[in-house]
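Because discrete structure vocabularies remain unfamiliar, it helps to consider an illustrative case, giving the amino acid sequence and backbone structure tokens:
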Amino acid sequence: MVVCGLACWRCRWLLPLLLGLAIIMGIIALAGRGWLESESAPYVQQASLWESCTRNEEDLNWSCESLMDYGWGRAAAATYLVGFVILVICFALAVIAFSIEILRFNFVRGIGGLLFVVAAFQIIGLVIYPVKFTEEIPLTGDNMFSWAYGFGWASTVVVIGCAFFFCCLPNWEDEVLGNIKPTYYYSSPERAPYLN
């Protein structure tokens, strides 16, 4: 049986791996056209972080309008994009931190702080978008915020979880590095007479 404790090198790569997963979900959110879609037929509306597209029920061609013409569209895209860039930087720093033989735990805590900044930027972008979109863009039919918008939130949730772990990891520095001897506990002297 293989036991992977905190001192195991393979387990140390879980946090950078989770950051990589958050980057993949962020790429899907940035590139996806499913931030807003028509909920049911006829499918006449779809939007991404960058543009809003509509069409008539009979027409098969989409007519698109850039959201970068709106101040809120630029703000939502900029805040989410800035958060994503900082996330990529944090991923690179985490790979460097966990590649060093002796971990620099203050360095790891700094990565956790940066990840909270990433989460703040992404949350701002993810809140600005639906509020202002529904106020300023005319919607037709029943619409829903869809899969690409969900990937944006999933990326943010993973970043928040990783931020807590990165900030708390230095509290268990000795356990991670394997510097603590195991402590054995016995229930009572009556059960273990050989201890007397």
About this structure: Confidence is low (pLDDT under 50) at residues 1-7.
